[in-house]
Amino acid sequence: MAATGPIGHDDIDALVMRLRLGTEASELHGSLCGYLAGGARPQGGDVLAALQLDGEATDPTAEDLALLQRLTRQCERELADSELGFEPLLPDDDRPLVERAEAVVDWCRGFLGGFGLAGTAAHASLSEEAQEILRDFGTIAASSFDFNNEDEDEDALIEVQEFVRVGALLLHAECNRHDPASSGSVH
Hints:
This is YecA family protein. InterPro entries: YgfB-like, YgfB-like_sf. By secondary structure, this protein is mainly α. The chain has one domain (9-183): Up-down Bundle (Four Helix Bundle (Hemerythrin (Met), subunit A)), CATH 1.20.120. The protein contains 7 helices and no strands. Helix 1 (9-19) packs across helix 2 (25-37) and helix 2 (25-37) crosses helix 4. The radius of gyration is 16 Å and the shape is globular.
């Protein structure tokens, strides 16, 4: 993993395994994105404490903490990107459909948890559209999938992923519109 390149799903997966976080890589990314989209920032840069995640046996190394800080900055940049380039970190398209669909469920579950941890200040005045997106994320997070037609199922998953991507961007824009620090870095 290059220290300057974008952090990918496999990088987060390795971190989750090292720290035995008891979560999936997509759920961790979703939690962080939900937390940031909800207008919060990790105090002192402690991402795991902000997301209320503790490793079972291992304290994070300085390298692990640096990776989490880089991931936070990457998420902040992507969510605030005027080109709308944000993408939820999910397994690559060459992974089995079932694995990718479960990762979308995990990501939405994490997003909702992180969004809730962000607090209620920005949430009190959410638009009806934003509230509907949160409800839809809840529906996705509670979903289980039956796969019958690979092509149709693949198309449906792509549509859900696009909805999640755009929904996260809308929630971030709505909750961070009055926060000049929303494009800032983690302290």
